[in-house]
Structures
1.
Amino acid sequence: MVVALLVVVPLLLTGGYNSAGEPYGELSIDPLTPVGLVMVCLSLAAAVPIVIATTRLAHDLPGGWIMSVVGRLRWRWLVTCLGLATLALLGSVLLALVLPEHGGASVEGSVNEVTDRTIAFALIVLLLIPLQAAGEEYAFRGYLTQAVGGVVSGRVGTAVAVVVPALLFALAHGVQDPPVFIDRFLFGLVAGTLVILTGGLEAGIAMHLLNNWVFFGLALAFGDISEALAPVAGTWWLLPGTLVQSLGYLALVAWVARRRSLETTTDSVVAVGVLEGKRPRV
């Protein structure tokens, strides 16, 4: 029911704008419109049921094993990771304050006027970006990590299971400047490592979700959200902030997971891939 509400409310809003004849109700991603953003989010969110169905039909395994070693999404752990991701983000913001202005991390200009279009975008970002982030993590860090990790054994297999999905994740964003590509690749490496360290997708989903919320929120408040989908331009000053945020988050999550004695492997006979108990961990 929760997922249904998250999907139906934005669809009703954007459908209403479209029927009213508003130009921002048209289906477009360049420039981005509210309906266009809904379609992008839902198409990526569709990876969740597709991955679950593929796991069941092609591998004869319960879809829950894609989510974590306990066979389901650990919601309390996900909320904890959102808090840790916020702390790590604050660290990167503090670093941005001391970087040169041309580092590209500053927010310039006045706050945009709040319009019906702004409200529509804000609701879509708030409600559907979580599904979009989850969809990408299910596909790249869920299915691909387990599939690759199940092919190659040992520590080499674990490393390949992290690197290959991270590379494919960065490539999936299309043509982009080298710093932006490396930024996304580093994100993929950290998210993949977190799957191994925590035994599930929750930490990666939390970081992915927060990053996207902040990015679209800033674009909506200070920039032009119609040009914000899949940015391809960036400078090398992106990377210091990315390293501080990603490595800081990795350290925080690993520390809290150890303190909580979080389950990170499973000995279940239905489990396969890098989260099996018999596999060495990163």
2.
Amino acid sequence: MSSAATAWAHALEAWAIPPGILALASEDPWIHPPVLFNVPEVVPNNPSHGRAREVLGESASVLDVGCGGGIAAFALTPPASRVIGVDHQGEMLEMFAANAAARGLSAETHLGFWPAVASAVPRADVVTAHHVVYNVSDIVPFLRALSDHATQRVVLELPRHHPLVTLSGAWRHFWQLERPSTPTPEDLMAVLREMDIEASIEHWDGPMRVEQDLEQAAHFNRVRLCLPEEREGEVLEYMQANPPLLQRELATIWWNV
């Protein structure tokens, strides 16, 4: 493993929840609720979608890794007419397939973790992986498999800091626990350089992905914070006193193959 890849893995390891706190959790705190991955009928444009569209012709194909409901893929249809979704949650893939059918698109889905399932997945003109890499400790095989499956371009989107940075204040409040702030998109660029991949990066501001209402947010954050159900009201009070930001710093990273 390269030095940059090792640093990336160590930075993500620092996000582990201390065993003493994790043992008190009544539910798995590492949740990705499907309700947060609904795709709007019209997907707003952003730099990530623009970089992918630059190389797409008519009837192109898109492979969306860690697809959720498929917002990264469906933002590109048209011109793309064929979409492929990979996700480790079956409910996400059901959403992806339903969204494709509603748009009259050719679609296929693959259940499992990337790159473990990569050998069963076809190549596509563009490969996208939005808001996924901070979940990937062994980053080099993940990135290499993305490149191997693209015929034109790979496009990644990620926030300027780990998405759980938004809960750092809550961890401090409820557990007196300081949370890390790395890795960052620049750390990922260092990994790509050591892989001899000539990638580009663009920083931009976009809307924060938030729950539908504060009550829903309090529930999910209570789970993420390893707190018991009876303390959900306290989490709601904390969130009312510390409302979430509406904007966040994001980065688009892309390279041609």
3.
Amino acid sequence: MIKGIIFDLDGVITDTAQLHYNAWKKLAEELEIFFDYKFNETLKGVSRMDSLDKILIYGKKQNDYSTAEKEVLAEKKNNHYIQELNKLNSESILPGIKGVLMYLKEQNLLIALASASKNAPIILKKLELYEKFDVIIDPATLKEGKPNPEIYLNAVEVLGLQNSEVIGIEDAVVGVKAVNSANILSVGVGDKMVLKEANVVISTTKELLNCIKRIQREQL
């Protein structure tokens, strides 16, 4: 029986992709590295430091910065991003998500967030959803990022549930891999071909409520 739902944030609860793009592009321009939407797609679901490494490699500048200097660059990107976050409000929640959260509360299901974003609490507060979540995993406490399952295993443990009692919802390949590696039922939101490793794939968040209800019925 399903007792909890673990959500990714970006692309599932809200879409901050454009905000991330604006922030990374601003940093890349400061570093004189070409950056466009196509390359930005390769950063989907990737942690901030790993994204920075990919950008530096792409710009052939991977040997130009020390570890400490990279930390400064990552912090600079984050500052750009926090400025972008001021554009967020409750209207930025993806379609159907408010209804899903309301249903989960009515069903007394536990709700967790497993996002690689260190800004997740800020974002949830901007969206006026912070109080809806029982658990928000702090990625700073983790040793590994997705596709490693650590964040999901951590969420299950904090929720006090078994892996078989939760659903993990993701929109990126690395996220789906993390859910699957944790032996949790995975729901992918997006392209069926891209997210083919997910146990269930839906096109948009509008379909999520019916998807969860269907899984619940199947497990009765």
4.
Amino acid sequence: MGELIRIAGTADVKPGAGMVAEVNGKAIALFNVDGTFYAIDNTCVHRGGPLGEGDVVGDVVACPWHNWEFNVKTGACINNPSAKVAVYDVTVEGSDIKVRL
């Protein structure tokens, strides 16, 4: 099992928003969906856009480059069902958000 690593504080990601954090040289997109935090790979499988900078509606983020959409809970691509990004387990300890890598 991977190590839990602090990625951000709970106040760093407002509800309905996302952010990009670098953990051990890997870019992770972190989202707050109604107070629950989700982490996926930051790189869009379409053209490499930064998913953590995309607009979030419900549990779906749209890549800011070409609007490919991904479910932040499952990593599934809405535009192309055969495409997916990695999903990371998230744990909240106090005000610390941690991901398992």
